[in-house]
């Protein structure tokens, strides 16, 4: 594509330097620049892309996008906001890929990963080719890729959407984080369905207040479009039991489909019962009623199922097929995942890392427990300090023994993080800084009928200590501890 053709994506800009070169790629990382690249200089938190402009030209960049004039030998396109320009350019360069398939976005504090996986599996089992972008991984059909962020940067995102289009994906599902929405990573994505799970305290280190956090999530619904196209309806799927939904209804002009348990909803669960083997409930829709049996357990699992059912209905699937596929799903990695080595006490690993998600999972565990509950809980470093005592308070109140430990301390002293947590303790607790030792302690003290919950990291296979990313998997560590106890 010629530079001048690509620049149609921008509304205002100034070009410094003559030329209309062929653009063979767009890059925002100078290390990826090659002959024919357009390099977009992005101001970052730790490095500034403008500092690498000359290096990019030496590596073959034929034009630059910049927020200031640069003294280089190639055309420089000066814009006010390079982040926004990157999204606009990438969308045009890859020819608006999200218009080629149904795109479902899932946002909320808790449940994004599970809901996304449920929706993807339901559609995949209907012989659709699916795409999935989220915390655990990215998938196109059977092919899996690692992801660094819950929602990738706009350049990578549009590139992967183009890949999905070229591989004839029918439906793509993606987790949409509040960071991604405020940073503009999803600008240009043509969502058909937006799903809201819930809003509870998290990321206040970034957003500052719950009000700002709530409004950040609402950006997904305000971006659903402002027309009523009967050929491609836009639908907002909202959890009516969460107060934030009323705000999102006002923020979107899309069609609304409400789901819930406690309040009257379009898609609603009644007569819920839980057991160690799963969950049963009666489902009502505007025109149908069904009995549902899930292999997943807990009230939060019912909400996740309702969200997935609602999104699948909005995307045109038949209710009976949705339920048949949903009832066959056994779980999602790191989400209430059982570590089974034949021991007579369940060990569960869960991603719960917010006060609300920890409380939800502990309430479910207590309902299942015959004996005592041990909860291994930590809090991340360089993140919201205000939730640390809340996490410890919940763990110590709901578990018989809270084992307070480290999570991803990052640049903080893990003992200082634990000091913050201990301020909220209201019950019995043990403080063990080393996470592996904490897991071993809980498993060593569990007896028949007790339950060990290891919360916070879920599917993660690393621990961040200082500037090091170390191999660490709660599930692997738990298995080792169980085997060592048996030996």
TrEMBL record:
Single GO cellular component term: cytoplasm
Binding site for UDP-N-acetyl-alpha-D-muramoyl-L-alanyl-D-glutamate: 30, 149-151, 177, 185
PTM notes: Carboxylation is probably crucial for Mg(2+) binding and, consequently, for the gamma-phosphate positioning of ATP.
Chain positions recorded as meso-2,6-diaminopimelate binding sites: 383, 407-410, 456, 460
Pathway given in the UniProt record: Cell wall biogenesis; peptidoglycan biosynthesis
Protein name per its UniProtKB record: UDP-N-acetylmuramoyl-L-alanyl-D-glutamate--2,6-diaminopimelate ligase
Family to which this protein belongs: Belongs to the MurCDEF family. MurE subfamily.
Domain Mur ligase central: 106-311
PANTHER family the record matches: MUR LIGASE FAMILY MEMBER, UDP-N-ACETYLMURAMOYL-L-ALANYL-D-GLUTAMATE--2,6-DIAMINOPIMELATE LIGASE MURE HOMOLOG, CHLOROPLASTIC
InterPro entries: Mur-like_cat_sf, Mur_ligase_C, Mur_ligase_C_dom_sf, Mur_ligase_cen, Mur_ligase_N, MurE/MurF_N, UDP-N-AcMur-Glu-dNH2Pim_ligase
Primary role: Catalyzes the addition of meso-diaminopimelic acid to the nucleotide precursor UDP-N-acetylmuramoyl-L-alanyl-D-glutamate (UMAG) in the biosynthesis of bacterial cell-wall peptidoglycan.
Residues with PTM N6-carboxylysine: 217
Catalytic activity entry: UDP-N-acetyl-alpha-D-muramoyl-L-alanyl-D-glutamate + meso-2,6-diaminopimelate + ATP = UDP-N-acetyl-alpha-D-muramoyl-L-alanyl-gamma-D-glutamyl-meso-2,6-diaminopimelate + ADP + phosphate + H(+)
Residues annotated as domain Mur ligase C-terminal: 334-458
Molecular-function GO terms, alphabetical: ATP binding; magnesium ion binding; UDP-N-acetylmuramoylalanyl-D-glutamate-2,6-diaminopimelate ligase activity
Sequence motif Meso-diaminopimelate recognition motif, location on chain: 407-410
Organism domain of life: Bacteria
